[in-house]
Amino acid sequence: MSAPRIRDLASPNHDARPxxxxxxxxxxxxxxxxxxxxxxxxxxxPVARVSAHYVVEEDGAVWRLVPEERRAWHAGVSFWRGREGxxxxxxGIEVVNPGHEWGYRPFPALQMAAVxxxxxxxxxxxxxxxxxxxxHSDIAPDRKRDPGELFxxxxxxxxxxxxxxxGVEGGDPAVPADGMVRAAALLARxxxxxxxxxxxxxxxxxxxxxxxxxxxxxxDAGTLARLAAVAALCEAEQDAPAAAGPRVGGRRxxxxxxxxxxxx
Length: 264
Prior knowledge:
The chain has 8 helices and 12 strands. The protein has helices at about 35-45, 100, 110-125, 135-140, 155-160, 180-190, 200-210, 220-235; strands at about 5-10, 15, 25-30, 55, 60-65, 70, 80, 85, 90-95, 135, 245-250, 250. A hairpin with a 2-residue loop joins strand 11 (about 245-250) and strand 12 (about 250). It is globular, with a radius of gyration of 18 Å.
């Protein structure tokens, strides 16, 4: 792990965390604005009342807006693994990308490498389990899509950030009759809040993170296989130590897999 070069650009939009609240969640966002300058300006605007702890630009530059010990205002109304109001217990990273509204595009390799190094440094300071390295869309699936289906979660997991189900292709397009019932149960085991009336919303959020080749909210057999594998990983992390090897922040560091390069 190489220590990221971080420059400070303070935002006034933060307050104290609740007494005794652990920092046990890492939330990845995209900025969803046309330029990095616009996004950073908004995250520092006291009228906007939004912020994040860090911003990572497309060239790999990293800005610290809020100290980690303070509560940044990035998650909003949110839920993960039985916890609500995740600003209290999380660190938020905004990754510069125009997002689905302004021309969503792949994340450059330099940017993903900087995100990876920043995440590893954060994980070395805080006891954040792999299943709590999440997308904004995971914790607020009814209103958020970021960082989206082009974000290289698999590459991050290969380097010790978050988790990825190895050896589960998820290519079977068949749709079982009870697929959505099974999907809803697995989503809840992973940590999603699943609305009984619209489980497909949470399922699409899962697909953006762990089955990016198909983001349609349909409980096909391939998606169910990925769901079961991720649920098993989340449950296993609570019961057994990771395999032996060098560790950063409580997790094994594997040989670096280069993050996906931007497509031109």
